[in-house]
Design brief:
- There is one protein chain.
- The protein is mainly α.
- It has seven helices and three strands.
- It has a three-stranded antiparallel beta sheet.
- A hairpin with a 7-residue loop joins strand 2 and strand 3.
- The longest helix has 32 residues.
- The mean pLDDT is 92.
Length: 182
């Protein structure tokens, strides 16, 4: 069975739902706010589709549309279905350590004066609050529509992480204040 990357799985999952052409995939990605939880650039969609086709996980055909230019439509193969199901099982079964550049900053925080570090952390909390507001607003809009539970989970999970991160930063700031007084 072919191993697929996370970005390939993002696109393959959409093709698994039904046949799509490239621009249609871009519209779905935008509508579902997928760039909030994936790293799919507009220009990478066609690159990934080509890779998936080379791996024989999807197939394409030219579709003629009256009054419009023809378009290439992608459909998943049986191998693609098997690869995608295996990828989902792997993703849901194994913890993967998240690497954060913030940790690099924490490891070198000693280079800053306590007041500089506290100012940076205050800005970090501000950016967390902005992202929390974005996620809460997105969830509020989802509550007004018939958004599936698993789509909402893509917003409630990072919201829980951000709230925990904010609490940790506030505690860490108190520790800096205490240490700075010595």
């Amino acid at each position: 069975m072919r191993i697929i990357s996370d970005i390939e799985a993002s696109i393959l999952g959409l093709v698994y739902e039904g046949s799509h052409y490239g621009y249609e995939l871009e519209k779905i990605i935008e509508e579902r706010l997928m760039r909030s939880w994936t790293e799919i650039g507009f220009s990478s969609i066609y690159y990934v589709l080509k890779k998936l086709e080379d791996k024989e996980l999807i197939e394409s055909k030219i579709e003629l549309v009256e009054g419009s230019p023809s378009r290439r439509v992608y459909v998943i193969t049986e191998n693609g279905k098997k690869a995608m199901r295996a990828k989902v099982k792997s993703l849901l079964s194994n913890y993967k350590k998240a690497v954060s550049p913030f940790d690099l900053g924490v490891s070198n925080i000693w280079l800053l004066k306590p007041e500089e570090a506290l100012e940076c952390l205050k800005l970090y909390v501000k950016s967390i609050n902005e992202h929390i507001a974005y996620l809460e607003d997105s969830l509020h809009r989802m509550d007004k529509s018939e958004t599936p539970y698993f789509v909402k989970a893509l917003f409630t999970r990072p919201l829980a992480h951000l709230k925990t991160e904010k609490s940790w930063v506030e505690q860490f700031s108190k520790e800096i204040e205490k240490q700075g007084g010595n």
